[in-house]
Amino acid sequence: MIRLVLVLALALPLVAALPAQAQFNFNLNRAIESVKNLGRATAEIDEKQEVEIGRDMAARLLGAAPLVNDAKLQRYVNQVGRWLASQTERPDLPWQFGVLDSPGLNAFAVPGGTIFVTKGLVQRMRSEAELAGVLAHEIAHVVKKHHLKAIQKSAQASLAGDALSMLNSKSAEARDKLIGFGTEMYARGLDKDDELEADRLGVVIAARGGYDAYGLPAVLQTLQGMNPQDSSLALMFKTHPAPGDRLDALAEKMQPTLDAHAGQPQLAERFRSFLGSK
Amino acid sequence: MKSLLALLLVLLFLPLIAWGEPATLIRPTELKKDPATDAPTVAELAENTVVDATERRAGWTRVKAAAGEGWVKMLALRYGANAKQGESGLSQLFNVARTGSSGTQVTTGVRGLEAEQITNAQPNAAELKKMQGYAATPAAAAGFASQARLRPVAVEEPK
């Protein structure tokens, strides 16, 4: 106690004499810390943690819309999706696929390998190749870690600290906040470039799976032909580039790949046999 | 009586089934006799030509144009009201004047999953568990693919 008083007595005049210096040091340390966090933001969430965040985010999305109560359809979509995921650079994630019971037209990719597609979108498809195209676009988001990177950026931007420490935090509040950044992503959308990259890689993944590569462009053309005021498209159009622009981008960059794999199976009949089950 | 009603219904919807969707060419395009680049050219179609589009085969769509019937590259087509990126109410009005319809599909009026629903959602652990139960193993998925003669193809991601 006496020692502490002594230290304080010695230190206080120093601090008082150099207030500007002290403040400067403090700010500098904070700045260094932020830069360090920024540097960490893209690398440090490992696969196990990615899967863990994904599980929480998937549970939230399922809270917004439950699964279609049709086991045959759900298993079908899982078999098509898992086959496609096996053709990627991340074949060993715990991939799972679900059809959400929503009339809206949309699909979602969750970090760690969970993919959702709405019933409304599935009902507009005409073949398994079209389903494969949409699933492959979402799989591409996971392979490229688009959402994970966006969540990390979001955690940085809000000055909430780095995503990793929030994830490891014992406080439920910090964790919730991080998952909140994640779900917000589905309401706000990714960068346009991420979407266009997922379109290109989606075409590649579907073609690798042996499907007609035009499945994804065909779905985009269906969307493009719909009335843009249609409320079932509201969220999809809010969070994605216009389908016409996406088709233009595919035509510009992917025509050779598309044409090289255009003759592969579409499997319209198999698709109908599973879709018609309920 | 019942069969008569059915027949009436079929007749009523026949035009819808037989007709394609109105679509517009976004660039000058060759109308081909068959869905292949080396097929004979039926006609040269100008940009903005309005056609009736029916079936798709790989990268080709069958169309009916004033100049004849045949196939055009699928990605040269944009459908309906917003054919030329014009997604404003005005272009839709124009479309009504041009084709007599407000687009290829009417507004369904259903509300899909909304942004607020997602941001306000509470986790549903029971559904997550159900979903995990539907997951397929890589081996099962490969078996299902080979049933349909799907074979893996080496495709590079373009840079």
Summarize the structure.
By secondary structure, chain A is mainly α.
Describe the structure.
The complex is a heterodimer of chains A (278) and B (159). Chain A is mainly alpha-helical and 278 residues long. Chain A has one domain (47-275). Chain A has helices at residues 2-17, 19-40, 47-64, 71-85, 119-123, 128-143, 146-157, 163-168, 172-188, 192-208, 215-225, 234-239, 243-260, 268-275; strands at 96-100, 107-110, 114-118. Chain A has a 3-stranded mixed beta sheet, sandwiched between helices. In chain A, a hairpin with a 3-residue loop joins strand 2 (107-110) and strand 3 (114-118). The longest helix of chain A is centred in the first third of the chain and has 22 residues, at 19-40. Chain A is globular. Mean pLDDT of chain A is 85; it is low at 4-19. The longest helix of chain B is centred in the N-terminal third of the chain and has 17 residues, at 2-18. Chain B has 5 helices and 7 strands, in the order αβββββββαααα. Chain B starts with a helix and ends in a 12-residue tail after the last helix. Chain B has a domain at 19-99: SH3 type barrels. The radius of gyration of chain B is 23 Å and the shape is extended. In chain B, a hairpin with an 8-residue loop joins strand 2 and strand 3 (41-45). Chain B is an alpha+beta fold. Classes of the chains: A mainly alpha (278), B alpha+beta (159). At the A-B interface, helix 3, helix 4, strand 1, helix 9 and helix 10 of A face strand 7, helix 3, helix 4 and helix 5 of B.
Question: Which properties best describe this structure?
Answer:
heterodimer, A: 278 residues, mainly alpha, three-stranded mixed sheet, 67% helix, 5% strand, globular, B: 159 residues, alpha+beta, SH3 type barrels, five-stranded antiparallel sheet, two-stranded antiparallel sheet, 33% helix
